[in-house]
């Protein structure tokens, strides 16, 4: 056996012009990573090179992914390049799998300088699917624009990358593995860790597990159905909800992570989690939930398939926030939502006199507010909910938050939602996605629309829809000034705001792998008690066009 130090090589490469990270990192079709020479190596080297050498030397980083196709191949390259770039220790999930919320948790637990998350979230997997890679910084959250811009600039001029091509790590064994490298004084260490335990321990310190166990397995327990959609969340759901909190094993379905998510689209909404919706409609289960590929998104359902719109979900959690012991101890510093998300949360913030922040789309904006002690609870219309315990949205946290509310109030999901509408009014909310649109055409459309809504004649216009009259109060291209560091983010989406608080939003999305996605959001506010319950399920999941 050869015990000589592993060789560190510096190899030539050529840059690619298309490696600008979007709101959730770099996402491309798998074949792009596989067919373009050094495409992954270039981006990984750009990440490492964006970190100052003194900070990088001997540092700890975290690596994990949602288990989709190309995950393990990418991890092997990331490990080999980490060693060559002076990183001292990598903490990697067992089999290379770790949910995005768990990566954030582990970064913070180990005081790592950052982490690399391998996921395309709710996008399809498999050979013909998508792959993604993003960099999270030391706070556990997605890198801020200054960092991603630096990564992109490096990727445009990169000429070489460093790698230890002979380094092989065993992802299948929980262990601490050490490697001697040439010209390095200290060995390079890789720790393969239980992907669930650190995250589960964090949740034990947030929620009342005894009360949740009584709810799920006590004398008058409720019946639940949780769909992991063959994504990363399967092991977390099995360990925490079934083994620890006592829900029967058949409460959790599709819990084996698969490279292609079982040929399905791992997106927790009424369209792609249709089997769960159909099961819930049967009335056998009191509570249902689904998770996306990397575990940061969630969908909540009540008995008979009663759908909880994500915008309502975060508002209900806010209105019942002290059902969660964590907030009993920390208090509530502020609420936040992304700009396209309905204003349901605003109504709660106004009633409870708690500060409300409206941010651009992207969890990094919430993280900045959390780091400054200004934010406790936040959410996005795209099925993302979370709090300041980590710096990512957190699907399982949201499920346990809802179960905590059920345990406290001893009501059904539907009754809790209807009580909420009765108290705060209702935001009828829906969204339409126009996917894989020609980018130039989409930009032109947005420019033409902006010119139209910014004309003086547009202000005050009235539009009748059925019995309701909407009058334009304000129209703009949303601009955000960060209250923490003063940075300004312009051109974040077109808003048409009506006098009653209703809104129409248009924006281009940056999370797809091909073409542009035009998103249209409709947010109609109703406070008349006679009209609130006219159609209990009018707030629906995104429509695909």
From TrEMBL:
Matching InterPro entries, A to Z? A-D-PHexomutase_a/b/a-I, A-D-PHexomutase_a/b/a-I/II/III, A-D-PHexomutase_a/b/a-II, A-D-PHexomutase_a/b/a-III, A-D-PHexomutase_C_sf, A-D-PHexomutase_CS, Alpha-D-phosphohexomutase_SF, PGM
Q: Where in the cell is it found?
A: Cytoplasm
Q: State the organism of origin.
A: Salmo trutta (Brown trout)
The gene designation is PGM1
Which SUPFAM superfamilies does this entry report, sorted A to Z?
Phosphoglucomutase, C-terminal domain, Phosphoglucomutase, first 3 domains
Q: Name one GO cellular component term.
A: cytosol
Residues crossing the lipid bilayer are: none
Protein name, per record? Phosphoglucomutase 1
Keywords in UniProt for this one?
Cytoplasm, Magnesium, Metal-binding, Phosphoprotein
State where it is primarily located: cytoplasm
Gene Ontology MF term list: magnesium ion binding; phosphoglucomutase activity
């Amino acid at each position: 056996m050869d015990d000589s130090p592993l060789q560190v090589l510096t190899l030539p490469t050529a840059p690619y012009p298309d490696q600008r990270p979007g709101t959730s990192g770099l996402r491309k079709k798998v074949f792009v990573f596989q067919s373009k020479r050094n495409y992954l190596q270039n981006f990984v080297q750009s990440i490492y090179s964006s970190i100052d050498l003194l900070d990088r030397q001997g540092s700890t980083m975290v690596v994990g992914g949602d288990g989709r196709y190309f995950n393990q191949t990418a991890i092997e390259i990331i490990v080999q390049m980490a060693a060559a770039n002076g990183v001292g220790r990598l903490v990697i999930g067992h089999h290379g799998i770790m949910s995005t919320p768990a990566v954030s948790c582990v970064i913070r637990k180990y005081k790592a300088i950052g982490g690399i998350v391998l996921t395309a979230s709710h996008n399809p997997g498999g050979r013909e699917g998508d792959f993604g890679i993003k960099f999270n910084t030391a706070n556990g959250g997605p890198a801020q624009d200054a960092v991603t811009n630096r990564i992109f600039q490096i990727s445009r001029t990169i000429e070489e990358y460093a790698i230890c091509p002979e380094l092989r790590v065993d992802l299948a064994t929980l262990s601490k593995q050490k490697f001697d490298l040439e010209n390095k004084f200290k060995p390079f260490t890789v720790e393969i860790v239980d992907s669930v335990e650190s995250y589960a321990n964090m949740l034990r310190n947030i929620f009342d597990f005894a009360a949740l166990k009584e709810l799920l397995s006590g004398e008058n327990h409720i019946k639940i159905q949780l769909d992991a959609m063959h994504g990363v969340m399967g092991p977390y759901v099995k360990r925490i909800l079934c083994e620890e909190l006592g829900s029967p094993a058949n409460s959790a379905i599709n819990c084996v992570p698969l490279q292609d998510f079982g040929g399905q689209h791992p997106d927790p909404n009424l369209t792609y989690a249709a089997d769960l919706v159909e099961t819930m409609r049967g009335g056998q289960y009191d509570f249902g939930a689904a998770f996306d590929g990397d575990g940061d998104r969630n969908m909540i359902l009540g008995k008979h398939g009663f759908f909880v719109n994500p915008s309502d979900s975060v508002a209900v959690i806010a209105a019942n926030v002290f059902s969660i012991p964590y907030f009993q101890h920390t208090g509530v510093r502020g609420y936040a939502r992304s700009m396209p998300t309905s204003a349901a949360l605003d109504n709660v913030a106004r009633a409870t006199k708690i500060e409300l922040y409206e941010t651009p789309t992207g969890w990094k904006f919430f993280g900045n507010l959390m780091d400054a002690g200004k934010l406790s609870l936040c959410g996005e219309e795209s099925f993302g909910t979370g709090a300041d315990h980590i710096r990512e949205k957190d699907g399982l946290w949201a499920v346990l938050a809802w179960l905590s509310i059920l345990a406290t109030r001893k009501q059904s999901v539907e009754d809790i939602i209807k009580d909420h509408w009765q108290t705060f009014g209702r935001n009828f909310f829906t969204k339409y996605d126009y996917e894989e649109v020609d980018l130039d055409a989409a930009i032109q459309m947005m420019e033409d629309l902006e010119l139209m809504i910014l004309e003086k004649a547009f202000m005050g216009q009235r539009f009748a829809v059925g019995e309701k009259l909407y009058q334009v109060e304000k129209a703009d291209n949303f601009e955000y000034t960060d209250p923490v560091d003063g940075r300004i983010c312009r051109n974040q989406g077109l808003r048409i705001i009506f006098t009653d608080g209703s809104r129409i939003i248009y924006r281009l999305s940056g999370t797809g792998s091909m073409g542009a996605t035009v998103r249209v959001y409709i947010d109609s506010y109703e406070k008349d008690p006679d009209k609130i319950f006219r159609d209990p399920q009018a707030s629906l999941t995104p429509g695909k066009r």
